[in-house]
């Protein structure tokens, strides 16, 4: 089944949202790495899960996928 067409304006907005989410996810991961176990850590882990789900949705609509360069075999 072919993918539905998405207007260029919508794709552009999705790419912007995805890019901003990527940056916020990275900042949150850095902050999380400095925390000790507790409420703040749990809260950030939950936030990361939600942001990653949103990122996946925006990336799918924009035709952009996040790639984990550390585990990618592309060279």
TrEMBL record:
Source organism, top-level taxon: Bacteria
Protein name: Uncharacterized protein
